[in-house]
Amino acid sequence: MIDEQLGFVYIKENCLQCHGCEVACKSWRNVELAVKYRRVKNIWIGAYPNVKCQSVSISCMHCAEPACVDACPQNAIHKRPEDGIVVVDSEKCIGCKACGQACPFGVPQYGKDGKMQKCDMCVGERTSGMVDPPCIMTCPTQALALSKMDVARKQDAEKSMKTLVDAA
């Protein structure tokens, strides 16, 4: 396990439900029509007349211990030791969807070719000079951030996101 890794920070109170992060990701990465690397979901709380809505912006959590890595029979998914980013080798992926069944966040997406796709924190673009991924740069209220985290903080972020995902 990696001592410190990159992770997304999501501040639900700051989210305006503008879907800017979702659109920026999709357009920047030229993602297929039915595939979303990041998605905004509404969470409805309460009963009429006391109904409230909050949102959750979901993408790959690049988990401290990614279930998708262990579930992949082709070893097509791995966690980079230098930063903890979980990446997919589409040449090895056979589209069995075992990763999708294992992911507690429902993140893996499958394109026209049937192979798994997901957020990789724009690792290729960031190594060529981009500081933050477009989803973060686009957020008008700074509801999203990228941060180095120790294992305990990473696992806390995963637990918080799992609570939100389960409510959505």
Task: Describe it.
The protein has a two-stranded antiparallel sheet. The relative contact order is 0.26. The protein has one domain: 2-Layer Sandwich (Alpha-Beta Plaits). It has helices at residues 20-29, 67-71, 98-102, 123-127, 134-138, 151-167; strands at residues 4-10, 39-45, 52-58, 77-79, 86-88, 109-110, 116-117, 144-150. The model has no long low-confidence stretch (mean pLDDT 92). It is of the alpha+beta class and 168 residues long. It is 28% helix and 23% strand. The protein is built from 6 helices and 8 strands; from the N terminus they run E-H-E-E-H-E-E-H-E-E-H-H-E-H.
Topology at a glance:
Elements (H helix, E strand, L loop, with lengths): L3 E7 L9 H10 L9 E7 L6 E7 L8 H5 L5 E3 L6 E3 L9 H5 L6 E2 L5 E2 L5 H5 L6 H5 L5 E7 H17 L1
Antiparallel strand pairs: 1-8, 2-3, 4-5, 6-7
Instruction: Report helical residue fraction.
Output: 25-40%
Ends: how far apart?
30 Å
Q: What can be said about the biggest beta sheet? A: 2 strands, antiparallel
Structural class comes to alpha+beta
Tally of helical runs:
6
Strand order of the largest sheet: 1-8
Please, what is the average pLDDT? 92
CATH architecture: 2-Layer Sandwich
Percent range for β-strand residues:
15-25%
Output the CATH topology.
Alpha-Beta Plaits
Please state the overall shape, judged from the principal axes of the Cα atoms: globular
- Would you state the CATH class? Alpha Beta
Q: Detail the poorly predicted runs.
A: none
Secondary-structure element series = EHEEHEEHEEHHEH
Give the number of DSSP strands. Answer: 8
